[in-house]
Amino acid sequence: MNTKDIFDILPISITSIIEKLKDFDSLQEIRLKVNKPLIIYSGNKENIFNYIITRENINTILQRISGYSIYAFEEEIKQGYLTIKGGHRVGICGTCVIENYKVKTIKSIGSLNIRISKEVVGCSNKLMQYFFDKGNLVNTIIISPPKCGKTTLIRDISRNLSDGFKLSDKSSQGIKVCVIDERSEIGSCYNGIPQMNIGIRTDILDNCMKSEGIMMAIRSMAPDVIICDELGTLKDVDSVLMAMNSGVKLITTIHGYGIEDLEKRAVFKEILENKVFERAIILSSRNGAGTVEQVYNLNNKEKLWRR
């Protein structure tokens, strides 16, 4: 794990604490709150230190992230996070300034959450065969509870589809992929450039609403497949249906614990009735993040694989 980009924004007093962690290589989150102790999550363990975060600590980190011009980052700040070099995300909390019922900016920032960005190259290799039926790519939805590796998985799926891969002893040709990265988590873009490996034939619309980005991609980038994360609104669903009607394939994710979750949610009723998705992959954290529980054929309700 490359920690240089993280250490570059932290005060030395904090980096010296992090370097002493036994499971340093498993660093996940660094949480900093003014007048509260430093909390670090590493190797799925919570570590609380005697070091008390000061307002100066927070200001120093923000100044280093923004190149000492925090006002130049107001557009990003109002989204509640900043992405730094290396793809690491810094979540921001403070006093929200509201204008026309929307967040204009966040001031008096009192807490930060630095989430360490990691990619697991090859984590989708064994699943790639299930994205195809008789050699043709099929629409697929990945159902997963939070923090079970769904974003890491679709990032690697993008890489495999874009670069090409081995499928049943045959080489699969790379195809054109467009990633709609609404929360800057899939490609982890910094200055518009993906910091993660999402493939050589992949274009990305960063920080773009799915409902807008899906149609933008279809109109301008002529992709073979669109990949996005976390369907959740009626607008998202409408865009998915339009993508299906245009002939572009779709791979996406949704929060949930199984097929039953989709059936209970009114917002996804139309998707199920129209048989938009042909495959479902169910994830859990039973054996660690990214545990695949089953692969399901939604057309004939057949379980293609299960743990």
- Main sheet? 8 strands, mixed
Number of strand elements? 20
CATH superfamily of the largest domain: P-loop containing nucleotide triphosphate hydrolases
Shape: globular
Number of helices: 9
What would your notes on this structure say?
The chain is α/β, with parallel strands linked by helices and 307 residues long. The chain is built from nine helices and 20 strands. Helix content is 25%, strand content 35%. Strand 19 (291-297) and strand 20 form a beta hairpin. The chain folds into two domains: 4-115, Beta-Lactamase, CATH 3.30.450; 125-306, Rossmann fold (3-Layer(aba) Sandwich), CATH 3.40.50. The chain starts with a helix and ends with a strand. The longest helix has 14 residues, at 150-163. Strands 15-12-16-17-9-18-19-20 form an eight-stranded mixed beta sheet, sandwiched between helices. Strands 3-2-1-6-5-4 form a six-stranded antiparallel beta sheet. A two-stranded antiparallel ribbon has the order 7-8. Helix 6 (210-220) runs parallel beside helix 7.
Concise synopsis of the structure shown:
This protein is of the alpha/beta class. The chain is 25% helix and 35% strand. A hairpin with a 3-residue loop joins strand 1 and strand 2 (37-42).
